[in-house]
Amino acid sequence: MTSETKAPAGGSIVVVGGGISGLTTAIEAAEVGYEVYLLEKNSYLGGRVAQLNQYFPKLCPPTCGLEINFRRIKDNPRIKVLTLAEVEKVEGTPGNYTVSVRINPRFVNEKCTCCGACAEACGTELSDDYNFGMNTRKGAYLPFEMAFPARFVLSPQIIGTDDARKAKEACKYDAIDLEMKPKTFDLQAGAIVWATGWEPYDAKKIDNLGFGQYDNIITNMMMERLAAPNGPTKGKIVRPSDDAEPKSVAFVQCAGSRDENHLPYCSYICCMASLKQATYVRERYPDAEIHIFYIDLRAPGQRYEKFYKTIKEDAKVHFIKGKVAEVMEDPASKAVTVVAENAVTGEKMRQTVDLVVLATGMQPTAANAKLPADLKYNADGFIINDFEQGGMFAAGCANKPADVVSSNQNATGMALKAIQTLARK
């Protein structure tokens, strides 16, 4: 390990996760004088926020907030960013941790200018997980236009193939290194903040809602990518089955949340996400009818309540209090019929629409893969902060369901907790 990556024991903070919570934690700690190592398993920073079309409270694109944070990181020599990084093991006690890190190969070095010649040379098309598999991308790719670091990536799937060779030959800057290997090393840290974020709940597990069975049923995060200008359809919201403009859309709330068979808790963000996405549809298609099926609509805070009231005044948006029991598809038209009991009138209703959006819940990343450290979790996989012991803390959605604003506030607090650990050392 080089001297550049060594830190004095107890003198640095390791932040695991480069989403909005991790970025905030790292920046807040570094800007008051602490050395921070920011580790991200993806090839880019930004996390889930980078995949959104717009986010609250200003309904601005993610570039709005991320660009400022990326600039602050670039300008701060105290922050060392390590992408494609995974923590393999954590040993030690508060004030003196050894963090074993593995860096997976990008196969592209710092000489990359993002010219795109490598992608043009590749013929292979791979499923694009950034867009939830709704399109494909080349084996050499830039994750998204504003990716930080601004550098292409070669998929491990093309290493050893003609495509990899062609990509290397196409690069005029000697930026492609097909011999890159994984690297492992240790970091010494006084405190660790786990900002490992969340994953959309797997909608295929919800048998009665038809995701994966019917083409025109998508998730709320898929809707974000459809609406995003850099998404698979360049911002055009269309039916996956035929790329037609939907004349009617149903939003199904609590898809997997508040359900003992799936996620027993409220995921906090889903109601507002669907109301926001209703505006996406209405802005693009003024005549489209929107149907929102809900158990309870939760708009936490005055600003969100005001937004909800504005949506309710739209005559084209219909709210139905009732849990969706089943969905059915017309094989000919690919239209989807949503079946629910209206809890207000008691009638069983059937609403046929062109597109269904499932408001799938927020599941902590650690629920499916426990982290390699001595951490406590609740029954749902969220990390429980032990402030008495200190040393390691969970920020943002690793700790509880939260929106961007709440995640930023929480991350600032966890940066302070990490600093207090070092100060006591």
TrEMBL record:
One annotated GO molecular function: 4 iron, 4 sulfur cluster binding
Annotated 4Fe-4S ferredoxin-type domain residues: 103-133
Cofactor(s) listed in the protein's UniProt record: FAD
Name listed for the protein in its UniProt record: CoB--CoM heterodisulfide reductase iron-sulfur subunit A family protein
SUPFAM superfamilies: FAD/NAD(P)-binding domain (SSF51905)
A Pfam family assignment: NAD_binding_8
Gene3D superfamilies from the UniProt entry: FAD/NAD(P)-binding domain (3.50.50.60), NAD(P)-binding Rossmann-like Domain (3.40.50.720)
Matches recorded under InterPro entries: 4Fe4S_Fe-S-bd, 4Fe4S_Fe_S_CS, FAD/NAD-bd_sf, HdrA-like
Key words of the record: 4Fe-4S, FAD, Flavoprotein, Iron, Iron-sulfur, Metal-binding, Oxidoreductase
Recorded superkingdom: Bacteria
Protein family per UniProt: Belongs to the HdrA family.
